[in-house]
TrEMBL record, chains A, B:
HAMAP family: RecR. SUPFAM superfamilies: Recombination protein RecR. NCBIfam families: recR. This is Recombination protein RecR. Keywords: DNA damage, DNA recombination, DNA repair, Metal-binding, Zinc, Zinc-finger. The gene is recR.
């Protein structure tokens, strides 16, 4: 019976969200239809807008509506400092600490050989180009302090040091095994200020 | 800074979903943008489709794309039996038990005087009209076994008995305080078969 095509379609689409199972998706769909049609409309438009407008910054690889994002275009930034993070969420967390005035590169992932995620998937060529522009002096490795994040930091550190760059790592104020996105801003600020040569 | 209008819009829209806070919304938005653009597109279309196509059945009040839903139009159904549920999710749960061959009325809520939810909000007039069509003989009250669901059942039971209808309630196989949507189908089947006069 294909009797609720639109409803089934909405439930199916909501199930694509991370952490949302069939029961939650149904509950969300009914909630929107019954109590929040404005929200349903907003969500529809927001998805379509995001899909067409949001792309990756040519320089730092983060999500942006421009070809080069506003952070990269910001003339107040210290262009000799480049901070490498795994995700845009991590970038936002570091911005919140207000301890870093340089620029960023967003890997959009981390090395994970077991999952088939290699250097190409974290945009290594683009990163090396970016870091080798003759202006960047120090690269701050701000990948997560998980096993994969540490391995990624090690790999990138070796690669970039081989090109004559100073490479630092966030201080170990971040709890071992922790993910940046869930650390409080104070701890992260401490870790940024205490970053050390690697 | 309004520098990420589309991204902020997407995060804001996702926050309208029940149980989704700011962190989850951001995580969902980044996940879709980075790993599941098809899902983002599906969600956009599904919301828009649902908004324009899904309405309430003229007879039973559930969500449908038709003016009268397929259940209400189904000639195999026993039109002398009318089961009253709080939500479309509850209706689907009862359908899954395959113990009920009558028709439904969906209240789209429950009486809750403290929250300002009165008889009008659960479509009492529409329900009384529906139950008083001269064909319905028995009304099965299948509201939740919560305090509000029980109070709603009591109120509706009195109202409908006063109009000469036989009124039954799902048997107390459903755990007290439980919500239909989260009960296993076996328990719910037992409760349907054991429904009793009230
Ligand atoms: Zn950028
Ligand atoms: Zn109907």
């Amino acid at each position: 019976m294909k009797k609720h095509a639109s409803l089934d379609g909405l439930v199916e689409a909501l199930r694509r969200l991370p952490g949302v199972g069939p029961k939650s998706a149904q509950r969300m769909a009914f909630h929107l239809l019954q109590h929040d049609r404005d929200g349903l409309s907003m969500l529809g438009h927001a998805c379509t807008e995001a899909l067409t407008k949001i792309q990756h910054c040519e320089l730092c690889n983060t999500f942006t509506e421009l070809s080069v994002c506003e952070t990269c275009l910001d003339a107040e930034r210290d262009t000799s400092l480049l901070c490498i993070v795994e995700t845009p969420a991590d970038l936002l967390m570091i911005e919140q600490t207000m301890t870093f005035k340089g620029l960023y590169f967003v890997l959009m992932g981390r090395l994970s050989p077991l999952d088939g995620v290699g250097p190409k998937d974290i945009h290594l060529t683009k990163l090396v180009q970016r870091a080798s522009n003759g202006v960047v002096r120090e690269v701050v490795l701000a990948t997560n302090f998980t096993n994969e994040g540490e391995a990624t930091a090690h790999y990138l550190g070796e690669t970039l040091k081989a090109r004559g760059l100073t490479v630092t790592r966030l201080a170990r104020g971040v709890p071992v095994g922790g993910e940046l996105e869930y650390v409080d801003a104070g701890t992260l600020a401490r870790a940024m200020l205490d970053r050390r040569a690697t």
